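For the sake of transparency, this paper describes our internal protein records without simplification. Because each token names a local backbone shape, the row as a whole describes the fold. One such record is reproduced below, unchanged from the form in which we store it.
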Amino acid sequence: MLQQHADCNAVLKGLQPIFQQQRMTETIHSWEDHGYLATYTNKNGSFATLRIYPHGLVSVDLQSYNDDMKGRDKIDHILNKIEERMKELFQGSIKRVKRLPAIVRGDAIDRYWPTADGRLVEYDIDEVVYDEDSSFQNIKILHSKQFGNILILSGDVNLAESDLAYTKAIMGSGKEDYTGKEVLILGGGDGGILYEIVKLKPKMVTMVEIDQLVIDGCRKYMRKTCGDVLDNLKGECYQVLIEDCIPVLKRYAKEGRKFDYVINDLTAVPISTSPEEDSTWEFLRLILDLSMKVLKQDGKYFTQGNCINLTEALTLYEEQLGKLYCPVEFSKEVVCVPSYMELWVFYTVWKKRTEI
């Protein structure tokens, strides 16, 4: 980036010899008020684009078909030459030079996953340990050097073995006494919540997870998260139901069954800001209403929200809390979940105490 308006023709002429030395074929497009676009192609399949803007921005993209170190070294060599030449041409007038890491496309291991607020993150993933398609979603478990195994459901990073902070937050951040309590977990197929609550000597924990393949994968490859609780679907103080949670909630509500805690680990608050049009919002509202019906008067409902940057979606969620069949109050907490690489909002909801 130059500090002043660029002489587009001078930049082009100054950089052309670098590409010509690589025996690349040049094609130039020019616009009277918008600078130049030059493309350079090579017989080995590599190519470059050079974009020169009148306001001073010069961008260069290089793509190589080869993934070997020799090909990368050659690209680095070209980029070094371009930087050196730009400094020669515009001594003292270069405001900033920024070189981004290479993006590897079409690799056997996908390292690129978006954050909730739309930023692209490259993970240090080195192995695909589990990849299955169920009737409900694609399930991947990928190994990261930093975060351990990461559960990814239909392209969304769900939980890594490093993410105990997530599990603790959705359980109340250590402020709750689960001893002798009745607990209902909605979702939670990775087993993390179940594993941590069982340690706290509850009376009974019921976990309702729709996807057996999530449990199968996590039981084998996420044991740092779930321990041994997924080895059996029933234990001394817990049971796992492989069912859709909505019919289960309706059944429990009809039976008058009540829980001290309901933990919703099904889905994050939708990013869409049209609650009337998005079916995920409708699903979320239904879960909220049914959960309140099976929650004791002094019970608590825990759930994740979404990324702290999605303020509009979070505000809409809080508005939905005011539309339930019974009045509720809520609090929220912001937690850093390591593998998410963004701050995450968690909610505690409880029925409003009525004045006597």
Q: What stands out?
A: The mean pLDDT is 91. The first helix runs from residue 8 to 21.
